[in-house]
Give the backbone structure.
Amino acid sequence: MKLNVIKATLLVAFLVFTTWLTVIGLNTNTARIDFKALEKSRTEAMNKQSESSFESMLKNIGNTTRLIKPDILTSTDTARLSLAIRLLDSNKQYAYAGVLSEKLARLQTSSYRYFMASKYFLTETYSHQNPQNELMYIKRARMNLEKSLEISPSNNDAKVDLAICIYNINKMQGTDNQMELMKPTLLLLEVERADSSHIDAVYYLASLSREIGKYEKAVARFKKLVSLQPQNQQFYLELSKTYEIMGNQTEAKEWADKARNLK
């Protein structure tokens, strides 16, 4: 998120904090800060900001792209919507392609269209064209992935994307909800059990294992990735990094050398 978004979030948290202090009395020596309440207020403020940003984007769709007419937002012509999505996609207007894909998904009750809507929102996020709306797009992607999985529960790619969305949302706005914190890992483990060679699931599980200090599991998974894709230099470098964190400089150098030799 850009600095102005961060400042706005901090301002909201500060106002909530100072208002709370006023209520309990600034001169009360026994006053205790309810950090959970403050965190809840901050999260609610960010959620409202995200929804407000999305509604603002919809209202301004006619002013920010000339590729489609604004009335398409109320259209039920699936052929026209499909054509508009392809046009927006080819011109890298991913946010609007996501909006229309979501609409088409509702009209067709289509798992594929919901999945594609999430892809467009995430692509818009990765493009960094509108970093101030990053949280909004990731939340929108999450919503579409959840709807896609309601229709097609066995879509492993959607589960992996959902895991990463939830992980990033938790990182960006914080949460004390243990179930929310566990969801990414549980989703990835579910995919790994269904398909032990799913590259993305194994990669993210390896990364999460390293993040929480389970280095042996991280090493085992990164080595599995090397066996699955022996020409992928990144996996060798990830192994080198993991060994370096573990303090095993010999193994770290060995895997770094193997990565260089792939060039």
Notes: DSSP finds 13 helices and no strands in the chain. The two ends are 35 Å apart (CA to CA). The chain has a mean pLDDT of 81. Residues 98 and 117 are 4 Å apart (CA to CA).
